[in-house]
Amino acid sequence: MRLAEIFERVVGANAPVRFRAYDGSTAGDPDSDVTIVVRTPVALNYLAQSPGAMGLTRAYVGGHLDLEGDMYTALKRMWDLAIGDGIAISPLEMVKIAKDIGWVKFVNRVPPPPQEVTPKRLLGRGLRHSKDRDAEAIHHHYDVSNAFYELVLGPSMTYTCAVFATPETSLEQAQFDKYDLVAKKLDLRSGMRLLDVGCGWGGMVRHAAREYGVKALGVTLSKEQAEWASKRIAQEGLGDLAEVRHMDYRDVPDGIYDRISSIGLTEHIGHKNVDSYFAGLYAKLKPGGRLLNHCITRPRNDLPPMFPGGVINRYVFPDGELEGPGVLQTSMNDAGFEIRHQENLREHYALTLRHWCDNLEANWDAAVAQVGEGTARVWRLYMAGCILGFERNVVQLHQILGVKLDGTDAHMPLRPDFT
């Protein structure tokens, strides 16, 4: 049986995409602006070994499965097809397909692409969320290439959700506005000391120093991020106020900061460490101090935080774990923080990701030259999929503001002055 017939058997004859295979067969909508291309039999091996998202990802990252057209459009149409028509393959149907394509595809083991982080590789660095293992996980994702991140993220070098005044707002303005929103929620003032944990390339640190005269320290587990940030701080003449160190947030001394920002770090600390994380940040704040926690969240609090065998965990964020907003808020409250404000910026992250996807496509050849085609493919697939995730409420983005009371005084205005 030709592969196009199997494609139709799985997704139906009216799929809103075109299908083409190495055996010359085609299926789907011949006028579609996106085409799924099976280039080699290895794609079938991957799908046989891991039916679903993991097999498709391995085949695509390895170049055995390809896509002609826009990745987001293709994923959206296939998502809609799966939800609307309920794509599902029964065990009996799977046996029939296996016979048609040849049992050899099911027994020939093909190693995953080198971009995949296997459990064995991480186990060699210790237990989940130990300092050494966290350093390896961060190294995998963030020490890819600063030049690559410049191509994707743009001049702001900010790898977290921006805040858009309108859908037409530029990415750079939206990232500036995000940092300024954090600064206003924290009520930053000249002479204060700010700690930014998981500081990335130092965007918040530089913003606080440049715009508010704050003495700001950022810490990151990525050596390449710290080196890039230190150079940029020097270039901008902010060395008297801003500093970025290559260190674990757990090693920062306690009790000396007026304000703390945590922008995109909580996703990496692990469910079992959430309570100790917020307790540790509480200890680093002076009485009357504020914490702004900004992170990706699950839409419900009763969902499991881990995706240990999922695509994102294997290819993008090893050991990543997402909490529901109620879990985070409760943990902050139990650590001693008084919760003063919370908001969901889910739609803003979808807009942010669209800009990053556009940047990657516009700079595709340069990106491939920096990191190789396999890694560039990981980013194309993962970012387009994340747009859908935020649009469809699979994931959210929350900012939660907490205060370490000064006795009973929160030092807050009667009404928020940052909305």
UniProtKB/TrEMBL annotation:
Chain segments annotated as transmembrane: none
A GO MF term: cyclopropane-fatty-acyl-phospholipid synthase activity
UniProt xrefs under SUPFAM superfamilies: S-adenosyl-L-methionine-dependent methyltransferases
CDD domains: AdoMet_MTases (cd02440)
Name of a matching Pfam family: CMAS
Top EC class of this enzyme: transferase
GO annotation (BP), single: lipid biosynthetic process
Residues of the active site: 386
Keyword terms: Lipid metabolism, Methyltransferase, S-adenosyl-L-methionine, Transferase
Lineage: superkingdom: Bacteria
E.C. designation(s): 2.1.1.79
KW Transferase (keyword) present: yes
Family statement drawn from the similarity comment of this UniProt entry: Belongs to the CFA/CMAS family.
PANTHER family the UniProt entry points to: CYCLOPROPANE-FATTY-ACYL-PHOSPHOLIPID SYNTHASE
Name of this protein: Cyclopropane-fatty-acyl-phospholipid synthase
